[in-house]
Structures are given as structure tokens and as C-alpha cells.
Amino acid sequence: MNKRRITSKELAKLAGVSSATISRAFSPDSRIGSATRDRILSVAREHGYQPNAIARSLNNQRSRLVALVVNAIGNPCEAEEQQLLVHRLQARQLLPIILCCADHDDRLQLMRLASTYQVDHVVVFSDMVSMQDAVDIFHTTKPIIVSFEPLENENVSNIRIDGSAAADEIIEKIVNDGKKRFAYLSGTKSSWIDKLRRKWFADALAKRGLTIEAEAFGDYTYDSGFKEAVLLLHRSKVDAIICGNDVMAIGARDAARRMLGKNTPDDIAIVGQDGIAMAAWDCNDLTTLSLDHVAFIDAVVDLIERHDADLPGPHSITLTCNARWGSTA
Amino acid sequence: MNKRRITSKELAKLAGVSSATISRAFSPDSRIGSATRDRILSVAREHGYQPNAIARSLNNQRSRLVALVVNAIGNPCEAEEQQLLVHRLQARQLLPIILCCADHDDRLQLMRLASTYQVDHVVVFSDMVSMQDAVDIFHTTKPIIVSFEPLENENVSNIRIDGSAAADEIIEKIVNDGKKRFAYLSGTKSSWIDKLRRKWFADALAKRGLTIEAEAFGDYTYDSGFKEAVLLLHRSKVDAIICGNDVMAIGARDAARRMLGKNTPDDIAIVGQDGIAMAAWDCNDLTTLSLDHVAFIDAVVDLIERHDADLPGPHSITLTCNARWGSTA
DNA sequence: TTCATTTGTGTAATCGTGTACACAATCATG
DNA sequence: CATGATTGTGTACACGATTACACAAATGAA
Question: Scanning A72, A90, A220, B316, which has the fewest C-beta atoms within 10 Å of its C-beta?
């Protein structure tokens, strides 16, 4: 118990070979007698030997670590993607290091710390870090950076999201239902992705001679959705609220119902964004502009694999969103 | 762009010193002239130099990596703890590696992979890995293992949870409300923690001459809560369901309301466990046996810090749960 | 002035692998 | 049998940092 880990040199002595041969026993494609390999593997199992990944990484210049830059872990709007990606990485023997930057005072310092671990790849989910910062910090370690935010740079692969058609569909339906006065409840004040999403809906409204009449800013949480919706509905007579994500939409729906006695979809239409599993629960049944999470993560993994194999190829993939219909709009 | 990272030896040449001095400039408590240090740090900044953490770990025998063994990332019943812990670790310059074992075919192999990275600590949230397996795999790297599951071992610290008093309180209230026939909806068939939780409620019922009349097994998800509740309510006339976690409780509540027209708390009482934020949302308002997440993570961090500083001390901490009242029971 | 102590720096070994190179043994081919 | 290719193994160095040790210079005390 608690004994130090055995090294390849020690195991070499035990097996009567050199440490180089130990290393070869653990490398699938190396010149080694199969009898020797079997013997070494057996002795290794007996003594609980496993090659030290830290030493290997130093030698290899390849750590098999992947930095995942996320806003928060618990936040459902990212959680499903995170889960899928981690699963896929693990299947490829890649280990994810989570950088949770929403609550960290100095996100840049956190990213610098991770970059000293020579991560092979970086995936930026968060819209709270500027892509230029990410590139500046990680470019010396030459990882690929997969991000939402478009940035022309040889080290960055982009995944672009297009929800304009789905937004148009949703607005079409709501307007047909007789709603005329729209509010937009943003998730953040500064995020570019929030602005992009807002534009999809603003364009769809403009096409029909309508505008966003009222606006509010939350922080992607239920509580902020609830609170901002109350304020919004008190200061303006809107009959539809487009929310920055599903969780805020649920908050807004509860606020409308509880604080103002307005029910969806008759009194007010409420739309979410993301298409998280919870949105489809019977108690929520949200109409939402949804992204196919599997397709999204497929794209991320595709970019990572291409980079791993040093293949050239398109560094940008565009995904389109779909409308997912519930009873709130 | 994309250039290789500069090494300490190269920086040494640029600054006209030896690589040992470079190292000293980055170690807070080492003998080095302040003028030299300032010059080195300035040249380092200029060339984007940062010490290579992989090489440092190899030399130090200390990786500053922490393995977090979890069931799933998105699952709300753990997500809040995960988020808190990651936050606290990052503040201590420790980087978390997530091992997501719910969907991994071979959890043990995944843990073995992580153990080759010489993690300093291991925190096991998941009840899907046996503690003995974790000890066997990680003991060679001598990390501390923090886990729910009690296991007497010098390498394992335990956090024990006691919800018996809170369960008693909850049962008391439900029985006073006139309910008599209880069902228990488990999260898993095999998890020891599920059995422990079940026992709290079974004991509270026994004290009042009651038993668990019906039983079902889900998988901690909303859908399983919904489905199993439907089956349960069709095959037996229970008027209270205790669920293995909050998410399943929400599913069960929706099932009762939608499929059988039964409302809480009049027709049926429904109780969750965990006390996740979502349970308190207006649309859920769940009665739940809740754990103080902050206290829990405080305890984990306490154990980790004690181990980091090589301090002896109690290796076991017990936390008690509270009843959190909503309108479902 | 003289000697002991402190301060700042360089040299070289170390951490645990992977791998280029060398070399002996084996095998195939004519 | 001679020769060239292949196979299996050991030696030695590299990966990029940290650090024990040595030593010169600076400092202090008498």
C-alpha cells in the first residue's frame, strides 16, 4: 500500500531486460520478440507497472490532454455538449481538463496555467473569453482551437451556427397567432453570440415590418429570466418574449404565470434557445430554437481528429438550427 | 505564429544566464538577485516564456492534477458540486481532469489511464465505481481519494452523509397529511448510496408502523422517473413516492399529473433528494431531502488541503441533510 | 586587515520515458 | 556457402524543468 510507483528501469531489472525493451513492450508497433513482450507484460501486471504518462508526454511532445474552456459545468445550456464531447474524447484516450471561467476572477491566468501543461487541443465553448486572447495564450503550444467565434487564423477552427431560418419559422408562427409586440431577453450584455442570435430574430421581425420593442439582459440563469421578465412585463405591453436560452425562458414563463397570471401561449408567447433536454419535459414543453448537439460535437471531434492526423482541410463548419415546437409559442 | 514554445535553456541564452537561474526566477523562494529576476521575467514576457508544467511535474513528482470521477457532467444531481469543486481547485492552481464513467464501457481502464498522469488527488463522486477498484488503481500514485463510500483504508478519506433525521421529518409531515401508502423509486439497482438513502426512509416509516409498499428502479433521469411512476401508479395504489433524486421526482410529478390526473400534494405526495437549484424553481417547488452543497465541497477541499500539506487528521467527515419544503409534499 | 557568513550564479545530475543508432543473431536467396 | 535483409536487444541521449553542490564575490564582524 502507498508504495511508490515502479519505474521502467526497475521493471527492466526484474524482467532481465533493458528499459528500452520495456518501452517497446508497451508500444504497439515496435520491433520486439513476442515472447519477450508477453513476459514483460506479465511481470508488469504483477507489479502494477504502467508507463508514466507525464514522462512520455515530455518525450513525445504530445500530452493527450485537451483543454475545455467552458462557462460553467452545471449550466444545462452547455452541459449536454460537454458530456458528449468528454465521452468522445475518452474513447480516443484523450483526457479533458476543464477550465471553468465564468466564476474565475482571472480567466486569462487560468488559461495560461492550462497552456503550461502543453495541451494538444483547446475547445472553447465559452463566449466569455475573447478568441484573440485564447490564440495569444495557446499559440505557443500549437494546439487547435475550436470555437464558436469566427476568427481568421491558421490555428483556429470555427464552428459557425446559423439559426436564421429556424428563427424565421418561429416568428412566422407567432405572428400568425396574432402576436405583435416582441421583447428580447439577452443572456449577456457583451457576448457576440448573443448578438448573433438576437439578429436572427430581429431580421425575421423586420421582414414582417416588426421590431424588438423591449429588451432586457440576464445572465443565462433561471433566476435572471424570472426577474427580468417581471420587470419587462411591468414596463411594457409585449405579448412575446424571445429568450437567450432555455433556462431563462423557463424562468420567464414562470414569472409571467405566477406574477402576472399570463399563460402561454394564449396570453404570451415564450421562446427559448439551445434545445436542452429539459425544455422537452412535460412541465416545460418549450418552443425553442434548437441545435443538434450530436451534430455539433461530431463537428468538433472531426476538427480535432483532422488536426491530430495533421490533415489539412476546411477549418470551418457551419451548422443550422431547427425549430423545436412546444406549447409555449 | 505557431512557433515552438521557447525553452528555459533558450531563454537562458537570451538573458545571458544559465537555465538554473531561469528556474530560480520563477520559484518564489529561491536565492536570486532581484535585478536578475526582474530582467529574466521581462525577457520571458517578451518571448512568451512559461515554465513547462509537464517537465516540472516529472521532476517534482507533483502534477497538480486532480482526477474527478463523476457519473456524468450534465446530470444536475452532481453538477452543482462539480462546479463548486472545480472553482475551488482552480483557485488553488490545481487542474481538474474529468473522468466521466457513466457512459464509458470500461470505467476501470479509464481510471487506469488517468492514473498514469500521476494525479495528486482523486475525488470520486460516482457511485458507479467500487471504492476498492479506485484504491487498487490509484494507490501506486499515492493520491488521496475522497469518496462517499465508506472504506477503511489509509489512502481513502470518506465523506459520510446522514439524512435519517431529515427523512424522519419529511415522513412525519406526509403521514400527518394523511398519506399511508409509500413507494420508493430508486435511481439504480446496485448503488450502495441508493440503498443507504432508501434505508433512511424505510426506518422512518417503520417507526410509524408503515412500510415501503411498492418499489421501482430508474436511472436518475427525468424520463425514467416519468416512466417508472406511470407503471408504479398503475399497478399499486400508493399515495406517496419517495424518489432517488430530484430530477426523477420532477418526472414522477409530471407523470402523475399528466397521465393520471393526480396533483401534488393533495392526491399524491412526491419527494426528491439532492436539493438541486432546479427543485426550488417556481414550476417545480419540490419537497426534497437536501444536502448543503457548499458544506459538502468545503469538506472535500479540507481533506485535499490536509493531504497536500501532509497533515494527519480525521479522514472522515459526516454531513447531515436537511428537509427543504416545497408544495409537492 | 582577516576570517566567517551570506548571496548569487553556474555545473551537473535527476525525474521516467521514447527512440536513433549500433550490433549480433537469424533468416532468406542465389 | 556467401551475402544481404530482417529481427531483437542494448547503449546513450533527448525531452525541459528543478535542485544539491561548488564556488566566487560581497558583506559583516572582530
Answer: B316
